Amino acid sequence: MDSISIWQIVKQTSTFGVFILLVLVTMSLVSWAIIGHKWRLFRAVQHANAAFRAQFTRSRRLADSLGQAKSYALSPMAVMYAAGYEEMTRLRELKNEGGALQDKLDHLDNDDFEIVEMTMQKTATEELSKLERRNVFLATTGSSTPFMGLLGTVVGIMDAFWSIGERGSASLAVVAPGIAEALLATIVGLGAAIPAVIAYNWANNWMRQMTEQTDGFVLDFLARAKKESR
Q1: What percent of the chain has a predicted confidence (pLDDT) above 70?
Q2: Contact 108/62 with Cβ under 8 angstroms?
Q3: Residue 75, domain extent
C-alpha cells in the first residue's frame, strides 16, 4: 500500500482504532530511539572496556592503572578497578592504624580480599544496572503491541459487521473500510513488536557477555592483588 491509501484507511478508521494506532506508532518510535541509544552506548562501553583492559594487562602493578581508570568512565571494569583499589587502600589504612602507607599491598588476608571482591561485585552490579535501563520498555513493547494490534483488528472487524447490519449489504464497499482498519492495526502492531523483541534479545545477550567479562576481571584483579601482597 502506498502512503495515500494508508492515509485513506486512517481517515476512515474509528476513533478508538486511531487511538490504538497512535499508541502503537508512539511505542515503536520510542523503541527505535532506545535501540539507537543502546547501540551507540554499547559500542562506547565495549571500546572503553577493551582499552582499559589492555592497559591493565600491560601494567606491572595494580597502582599503575589508577590514573588510567579515571579516563574510562564508561568502562564498568575501570569503575570496578577504582572501587576495588580504594577498598584495599582503606583496609590497609585500618591495618596500619593510620600509619604511613607502603607501596606494597601488605597486611591483607583472605578476609580482606573477600571484602574487596564483594565491593567489586557490588560495583559491577550497579554499573550493569545502568546499562540495562530501558530494556524493560523493549520487553513491554515486544509483548504488548501484538495484543494491542489484535485489539485494533477486532475493533475493525466489529466495525465491518456493524456496517453490514446497518446497510443490509455485505458488498466489498461496505466491509472494506473495517477490514482495512483491522489489517492495518495488525501490521502496525507486528511492526512495533518484531524490532523490539529482536533488540531486547540482543541487549540481554550483550549484558550476559558483559557480566562474564566483569566476573573474569574480578578474578584477574584479585589474583594480581594477592601476588603483590606476598
Answers
A1: 80
A2: no
A3: 3-228
Give the global pTM.
Answer: 0.80
Phi, psi dihedral angles at 3 (to 5 degrees): -65, -35
User: What are phi and psi for residue 57, nearest 5 degrees?
Assistant: -70, -35
**CA–CA separation, 206 vs 213, rounded Å?**
11
If pLDDT is split at 50, 70 and 90, which confidence band does 101 have?
Answer: very low
Whats the size of the chain, residue-wise?
230
SS (H, E, C) the chain: CCHHHHHHHHHHCCHHHHHHHHHHHHHHHHHHHHHHHHHHHHHHHHHHHHHHHHHHHHCCCHHHHHHHHCCCCCCHHHHHHHHHHHHHHHHHHHHCCCCCCCCCCCCCCHHHHHHHHHHHHHHHHHHHHHHCCCHHHHHHHHHHHHHHHHHHHHHHHHHHHHHHHHHCCCCHHHHHHHHHHHHHHHHHHHHHHHHHHHHHHHHHHHHHHHHHHHHHHHHHHHHHHHHHCC
pLDDT of residue 198 exceeding 70: yes
Cell of 179: 477490514
- Domains: count for the chain: 1
pLDDT at 66: 84
* pLDDT given for residue 105 in this prediction: 47
